[in-house]
Amino acid sequence: MRVNLFWWVTLVVLGLSGAGCGGFMARRMAQAPNTYPEWIAPEARVLLAVDSRCLTNFPARYVNVGPPPARLRYRIVEPGDYGVEYSATNWLERGRAHFRFSFRTQVPGKSTGFSGSPRGTVLLLHGYGMSQAVMAPWALRLAQEGWRCVLVDLRGHGRSTGARIYFGVQEVHDLSQLLDELSRQGQLVEPVAALGESYGAALALRWPAAEPRVHTVVALAPYAELSHAMLNIRHEYARWVPQACVRAGLNRLPSLLQTQPGEFDPATVLRRTPVLALFVAGDEDKVAPVAEVTRLCQQAAPGSELLVVPRATHEALAYFFNDLVGPVLAWLKQADTSARRPSSFRRDCTLAPGRE
């Protein structure tokens, strides 16, 4: 399975016209990623080796959400011993870091003490242009520790429908409707947590402001401002796309999606409604740099913490399991407790000396 950062090559399918590039770019930014052909994705810098057939052991389910109407596909991974094993390799190619992460699992899993009584519910939110499959390693690993995990294809992604995406403004309501469906089925166990990566992390950070059932968040490589992330992606993946057109598209995007400027930015949301979160940044992340993730953490609710993972790029960060599993499990375990003690593997939301 290839893990691609899909954002920018998808925006030039039809070409750019100088006079109307702002409107064109805004429409491409908002277009559902699953409507683009796969061949236009850039070369993968991260390879995820996991048997996608393992997900067939967890039946696909659907829920209708909206407005605007969409149908979300999701799966429930129940607590069990899935025998998750992990290995990683990395190499340099044309001066850029590439990674391969391999996961082995045993499905169906063996029953554990949590199989009939989960610790709580964790929703796993994937990045832009991806699907629930890329979060499967996290679902299986967390389920192994007793959590009921919910994998979901976000609006306009994977096998879910929806003609447009809204960069979190609408998606948080979709996710709340998914919680409603889980509750109707008797499958929503509190505390509820959200673990998201990149675009999914941005959604996770804004969700508690609209959804009191979400107790805590784990945000892997969240961007602070959508415009910064898109310009950074252009720089990393498609420098030949005129920067002026990208900026013009970003300026037109709020009116296209009928919202106010700044509403796509997690920084704006956290200033208005701080949430409790574990923030994770990659030391080599060029899309959501450490300084931006640190700033988000400083705007979050008291008790939020920051973990910086050495050598991790934006695309690879979520799979640095040796660095992440311990802190994430500890954070989730404390999700419904009022007392929080400093941990040796984390630090508070301050920028380490020497970082820019």
Question: What would your notes on this structure say?
Answer:
With 356 residues, this protein is an alpha/beta fold. It has a single domain, classed as Rossmann fold (3-Layer(aba) Sandwich), CATH 3.40.50.1820. It is 28% helix and 20% strand. The protein is built from nine helices and twelve strands. The protein has helices spanning 21-30, 136-144, 171-184, 199-210, 226-237, 243-256, 266-272, 290-299, 321-333, and strands at 2-3, 46-49, 61-65, 70-77, 85-93, 96-104, 121-125, 148-152, 192-197, 214-220, 277-282, 305-309. Strands 3-4-8-7-9-10-11-12 form an eight-stranded mixed β-sheet, with helices on both faces. Strands 1-2-6-5 form a four-stranded mixed β-sheet, with no helix packed on it. Helix 2 (136-144) links the parallel strand 7 and strand 8 (148-152). Helix 3 packs across helix 4. The longest helix is centred in the middle third of the chain and has 14 residues, at 171-184. The two termini are 34 Å apart. The model is unreliable at 1-19, 338-346 and 351-356 (pLDDT under 50).
The CATH topology turns out to be: Rossmann fold
Structural class: alpha/beta
Q: Which band does the percent of strand residues land in?
A: 15-25%
Mean pLDDT: 88
Silhouette: globular
Rg, Å, rounded? 19 Å
CATH C-level class is Alpha Beta
Helical segment tally?
9
Major β-sheet annotation: 8 strands, mixed
SSE pattern, N- to C-terminal? EHEEEEEEHEHEHEHHHEHEH
Helix content: 25-40%
Distance between the termini: 34 Å
Q: Ranges with pLDDT <50 over ≥5 residues?
A: 1-19, 338-346, 351-356
Number of strands: 12
Q: How are the strands of the largest sheet arranged? A: 3-4-8-7-9-10-11-12
**What would CATH call the homologous superfamily?**
Alpha/Beta hydrolase fold, catalytic domain
CATH architecture tag: 3-Layer(aba) Sandwich
Number of domains: 1
